[in-house]
Design goal:
This protein is of the alpha+beta class. Among the domains are: 61 residues, Roll (Structural Genomics Hypothetical 15.5 Kd Protein In mrcA-pckA Intergenic Region, Chain A); 90 residues, Alpha-L RNA-binding motif (Alpha-Beta Plaits, 2-Layer Sandwich), CATH 3.30.70.1560. It has eight helices and 17 strands. β5 and β6 form a beta hairpin. The chain is elongated, with a radius of gyration of 20 Å. The chain binds uracil (URA).
């Protein structure tokens, strides 16, 4: 099911400039072990060895060409370099790399054999389709998900009821949800023709389509926003994550990001400094912290 539709690289080539020598926590993050912060925690916990010696000193550097790095006794390497890709997520799959209950997940749709350590950047609900980034670069993922990076995510939503432009004003003003006010959203009504052309199929009677752009990633945020204005979401498609779209990708297909796209993602997060708090789990392994409800 994993299908590559584009031959562009998405891989950091092993250039001298990028890999020699580098701080150990950066090496671990690039290898997809954890965020830099999470990697520092692994180091200070004594779980990281370089050439057989435990290294807890945060300033330590490694040469990935010659040094043998292990975490909990397991060898870690940069492999081909970090991989970055976008999946056009289908419906009815859960955004996780491992579901203990054995439900359908995104795993069969992405090339995990080719890129071990691949993980989703944030989550989409099971019934949400569209742009879902995957990477092996824990550091960039943590930066993209950090609230301070304000990365825009644009969705197309089909909602119940006939909407007028002014009905969207509460979302534009920053609607109050049970976990606090939302950052003001950018929204516009989408015509039936545009909805059909773009992502959503034919609108039925008593349905409207809206394009909404948010910068947060709270759990089921878009659905909760529309429920709060009494127009529940019937279909949701993420059309972009920052500069990345799934344009031209069949549902269920993936492509590697171009070097230009990866550069743009890095530039978006440039003001977030290493050492700032990591939004994901403390051990840094879970970068799927954004947004959605797995169990829907
Ligand atoms: N907001 C939602 O409600 N669901 C998603 O899947 C993503 C954002």
């Amino acid at each position: 099911m994993a299908s590559e539709t584009n031959g562009t690289s998405g891989i950091d080539g092993p250039t001298e400039e990028r890999i020699v020598p580098m701080r150990l926590q950066k090496f671990l993050a690039r290898a997809g072990v954890a965020s830099r912060r999470g990697s520092e925690d692994l180091m200070t916990a004594g779980r990281v060895r370089v050439n057989g010696e435990v290294v807890t000193e945060l300033g330590s550097k490694v040469d990935p060409r010659v040094d043998v790095v292990e975490v909990d006794g397991v060898r870690v390497s940069l492999g081909e370099g970090a991989a970055y890709l976008v999946l056009n997520k289908p419906e009815n799959v859960i955004t996780t790399m491992d579901d203990p209950e054995g439900r359908p997940t995104v795993v069969p749709y992405v090339p995990v054999d080719r890129f071990p350590g691949l993980f989703p950047v944030g989550r989409l609900d099971r019934d949400t389709t569209g742009v879902l980034l995957f990477m092996t670069d824990g550091d960039l993922a943590a930066r993209l998900l950090h609230p301070s990076s304000h990365v825009t995510k644009t969705y197309h939503a089909v909602v119940r009821g006939e909407l007028y432009d002014e009905d969207l004003d509460p979302l534009r003003d920053g609607i109050e949800l049970d976990d606090g006010p939302c950052v003001p959203a950018i929204c516009r009504l989408v015509s039936a023709d545009e909805a059909y052309d773009v992502t959503l199929g034919r609108l039925r009677r008593d349905e409207s389509a809206v394009e909404i752009t948010i910068t947060e990633g709270r759990k089921r945020e878009v659905k909760r926003m529309f429920s709060a204005i009494h127009h529940p979401v019937l279909e949701l498609n993420r059309v972009s994550f920052g500069p990345i779209t799934a344009r031209g990708l069949d549902v269920g297909a993936w492509r590697l990001l171009t070097a230009d796209e990866v550069g743009k993602l890095r530039a978006l997060t440039a003001s977030y400094h290493v050492g700032d708090r990591n939004p994901s789990r403390d051990d840094g392994h879970d970068f799927a912290g954004e947004g959605a409800d797995h169990d829907e």
